[in-house]
Amino acid sequence: MSISADNTTRLWTLVAKEFWRKARRRLRAGPAYRWRYSGRTPERVLIAPPDLRLADPQIALEIYYGRFPLSGHLVETGGQSPFTVEVPNRGWQRSLHGFRWLRHMRAAGTELAAANARALVSDWIAMHGNRISGVAWEPATTAKRIIAWLQHSSVVLQGAEFSFYRSFLRSLAMQIRYLRSMAREMPAGKDRLRARIALAFAALSLPAPVSALRSATRSLAEELDRQILPDGGHVSRNPMAVLEILADLLPLRHTYANQAEQPPLALINAVERMLPALRFFRHQDGSLARFNGMGATIHDRIAAILRHDDTAGSPPLHATHSGYERLAMGGTTVIADTGTAPPIDVSNHAHAGCLSFEMSSGRQHYIVNAGVDTYGIAELRPLARATAAHSTVTINDTSSASFAHSQRVSGLLGSPLFGGPKSVSTQRLDKPGIHGFIASHDGYAQRFGLHHERELSLSAGGSILSGCDRLLRAGKTPIRNDGRDLVSVRFHVHPDIQLFRDQKERLVLTGPDIDTWVFISPDIPAEVEESIYFAGLGGPRRSHQIVLSFKASEVSEVHWQFSRTRIISRLEN
Hints:
Layout (H helix, E strand, L loop, with lengths): L4 H25 L1 H4 L22 H8 L2 E4 L2 E4 L13 H9 L3 H7 L2 H18 L10 H13 L1 H4 L5 H21 L7 H16 L4 H18 L11 H20 L6 H16 L18 H8 L11 E2 L4 E6 L2 E6 L19 E5 L2 E5 L12 H5 L7 E3 L6 E2 L3 H7 L3 E2 L5 E5 L6 E7 L3 H4 L1 E10 L4 E10 L12 E8 L4 E4 L5 E4 L4 E6 L6 E7 L7 E11 L5 E10 L7
Antiparallel strand pairs: 1-2, 3-4, 4-5, 5-6, 6-7, 7-15, 8-15, 9-10, 11-12, 12-13, 13-14, 14-21, 15-20, 16-17, 17-18, 18-21, 19-20
Helix pairs in contact: 3-5, 4-7, 5-6, 7-9, 7-10, 10-11, 10-12, 11-13, 12-13
């Protein structure tokens, strides 16, 4: 898809800003600035903040034997320090230098684990502590490391000699000063928010002047106001961002309380909004809906976060500012994307999935989006982000938004999303016994002169999901048969679901439980095609998709329906 002149201008403006930002970051990491990061060494760690992320003592044992399972990849060091091993996977390197794996040592609770943690931290200080360069000192990685070192300082310092104690605190103080200088130069998004969280943790956990805590608190509050939407979603529209930020904000709120300090009102309000937002994106099996960069869900991690949720009650049905709608009834959950693209500078993981939806029944997913393989190869990401990887409408096999894949740009910006829907209108159609909405977007208007309108309603106690997809032309003029009106309505089926035709030629979807869903489309014959489900815990899996294909000049409105039934015997091909 080509990028319009207006979007090209915005792209190169963003490139120029990022180039200048990176130049300033290089300057701040250079010799002229490095003296600013030296200074007084704190005498002690006042408090070790809690860590809500899951910990596994078995992983601590694996690390002891030189096996590092990080970021979806296992690397064996063969007795060497992991900081000397050449590993081309950048995600693995960032995880290594981020030190979140220290939580597994703490969970092990043994002297051996503590000694290993101390040895690895000592290795890092010796090899990277005084050389500000590379992955180890990327501001986002530094923020993770500061939080991890503070949270697990008790296990790192357990049984430590005084010289190591001082070396640890000296390095920690240097990293904090460095991050304080770099935070303002970081791109917009959750990494910059995490940097502000790390600096607030540091001001609370180490002896610091009152002015330092006030400054860190004020900067954190400003960043929260910029990034957390009124309905609790994140400005990137990625459900995973809500989970990740809560995993840091909840311990930070607890640390303020433990230090008898008043947390900023922005922090309190953000947490109270984000917890219901997390429940909004959650299916009944505990997984999060796969929109805008969301991959596989680690269910226990969500459960650990939601233990802190005092906002009891059912999840909200609207996320107006985030751009999502939810239908829920009788064990059936439908979550739909009804929003415009996020701001360009936080759109690196955004998808062209406008008006796509997911449907689960009980603890089983039936209709899904393809999601992303979080730790997989980068070459597959464009496929996962395309409209065709979502349960929605495509026109002429084209995405409703475009992505910047230029090699000149990707080194600076990644692959931001451009040219998506500028306007998405949504109206709820709830009635007694019915949850529903109607929404439309203009993502195809500029190229094909068409608007996509989708109407969904869940009724009969959650046993019937009715849908209608319409292709509309501005001014109600007829749609031309010009070869640019080929439409596909896609429904991606979860790979755990069996899909077959019954004796009436209806498509039947059966899961491991007794719930069975039947798909009918009276207007257009349904075809079954192959698909890929990227968001599996074990990586991409083969799956299927139901496809309705037609020409908008001949059929401008298509009705379809999923109805739940329960059958004892299953008919297979």
